[in-house]
Amino acid sequence: MTPVELSRTVLRAVRRAVDAGELVAPVPERAQVAPPGPGGRGDYATNVALQLARPAGRPPQEVARILRAHLADAEGVAGVDITGPGFLNITLDGSGAQALVAEILRRGARYGFVDEPTGDVVQLHHPREVRAAVNAQAVARILRSQGALVRTSCADEPDPAWAAVLGVSVDAHGTPAAPAPLKVNIRPVPAVQDPIPLGRDAARWALLHPASHDHPRITADHLVQREANPLFRVRYAHARTRALTRNAAALGFTSAPGDVQDIATHLVDALAAHPPTLATAARHRAPDRLARHLVVTADAVLGVQHAVLPLGDEKPSAAHRARLALAEAAGTVLAGGLSLLGIDAPEHL
Question: Is the pTM of this model over 0.85?
Answer without folding.
Answer: no
